[in-house]
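User:
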Amino acid sequence: MKRLCMTLAVAAAVLVSTAGADIVDGKLVLHTRSRPTEIESDTPGEIVYKTVEWEPKKTAIIICDVWNTMKCKIPADRVAELAPRIDEVVSAAREQGVLIIHAPSGTMDFYKKMPARQRCLDAPKVEHPYLVKWCHLNDVREAPLPINDSDGGWEGPLAEGPPPQSRQHPAIRIDDEDAVGDGPEIFYLLQQRGIENVILAGVHTNMCVLGRPFGIRQLTYLGKNVLLLRDLTDSLYNPEMPPKVSHYRGTDLVVEHIEKYWCPTVTSTDFIGKPPFRFAGDRRNHAVFFVSDDHYGADETLPRFAQQLREKFDVRGTVLHGEGRHELPLVETLQDADVLIVFVRRLGLPANQLRALQQYVNDGNPLIGMRTASHAFTLNFRDPPGFKLPEGRAEWREFDAGILGGNYNNHAANKLGTDVAVVEDKTGHPILNGVTPQEWHSTGSLYYTAPVKDDAEVLMTGSVPGRTEPLLWTRTHNGGRVVYLGLGHPDDFKDTQFNRLLTNTIFWAMGEDIPD
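Assistant: Predicted structure:
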C-alpha cells in the first residue's frame, strides 16, 4: 500500500485554514452520512450525504465508556489509541461552546469531588416515559446486529476478577465547565441546558454506545437529534465469530447498521480539520471518491460502488459529496487516501480546497478521472463574453490536458451511445484482467478526447459511426499513476464488465494486485 503525504508546507497551510470546528454564522457545520431503510427509500443501497448546521450551545458530545483499562488487553489498547484523538476533538468543540459530557459508566466515585461531576448531580430530575436502564435491540425498529458478539466480543484472554476500570482514560482532559455523569442523570442535564443535539463518541459501538441510558437508542426515543462520530468508536467484536470479517470491517458493519436504523454519522474531520482517525492496525486500502451533482447520477452510483468495495474487497471507501455545490468537503481526507476517483463536472472550488487537491495530485498520488472529470474544474466550455470567475473560486483548466492527458472537446449525440472495444494488443494489461466480453455497447454518449498525450497508453476505444476516440488510458504524473475512463453512465454500473473494469482500475492505480 502506497501513501504519499502532502508536502509539509502546503499541508500546514490547509490545516491552518480549516483546523478547529467549522463554524458558519455561529453554527457547527457537520457533514452527515445515513442509509434510508427500505420503507424510507425505494432505491436499494441508497446512501445519503447531507450537511446540517447545529447551534453549539444546543449541542453536547457524550464520551461513552472510554475507560482507563479493561479485562481484555486488545480492546483496551485500541481505546488507549483512540483516547488522544477524542481529547483533540472535544477540545475543539468545547472552544465553540459545545457541552462535553464524560460518561465512563460505573466509575462515578472517582469524580465525586469534581465540579464537573456535581454539575450532573445538580440537574433537576425529569420524568419521561421512555427512560430505561438499558435499551436492548428493538426488533420492531431494527434488524439483528450484523456481527455476532454472543461471546462478549473478546479477542483475547480476560483478566481474573471484577472489571478493572476505575475512571475515564486520562488522555481525555476534563474541564470544570464539562460534566461527568452516568445513567438518566445525563438526560436531566441535557434538559436543564436546553440541549437538542447530541453527538456520541466512544466504545463499544455494538454495545454501550447503542444501549446505555445515554446511548443512541435511548436518546432517539427521547427525541434528541443524534449523531455518531463514526471514526471515534470501536466495536467489541471477535473476528473468529460470524460474519468472520476483519475487526475493523466488523465495526464498519455496526456503523452502517446505526446509519440505517438509528441516526446519521459524521467524522472528526468536521471538528479538527484532519483526516478521519484510523487505528494503526487498520491497514486496509483507502479509496476516496469525489462527487457533487447528479450529472450522470454519479452522486448515487459511486457511493453504491464504494459500498461494494467495502463489502467485497474490504477497501475503505470514503465519499466526499459536494451535494450539488461547488465544494470539495472534508478535503483533508485526501491526506489519507491511497487513490482518488474524481467524477464531477464544471466546478469552481474555493481556492484553499483546490490547492489541497492540486497538492495531492502533484505529490504523485494515484488519480482516476471518470467521464466528466475531463472538464471537472472548468466552469464553461466556451466562455461567454465578459465572463469573470466568481470571487473566492478557482478553476483548474489544465487538469484535463496536463494531468489526465486528454483533450475533451465535446461529445457525440446522446442517442448514439458508445461502442466500447479493448485495444487488441493491450488485452494483457492488468486493468483489463477478466473484463469480458471485450466489446460492448454503452448507452452513454461518446466523449471526443483525441489527441491524448504522447505518453498515454490507450487501453480501450469508443466509437460511433464514422468516429473512434480514446476511451480508457493510463499515464503517470510526477511518478503517480493516472487513469482516465470515459465511461460512467448510470447504465454502465448495471454491467458486470464495467464494474470489473472499474474495480481493476482502482486496484491497479493503488499499485495492488488485481483481485479475483
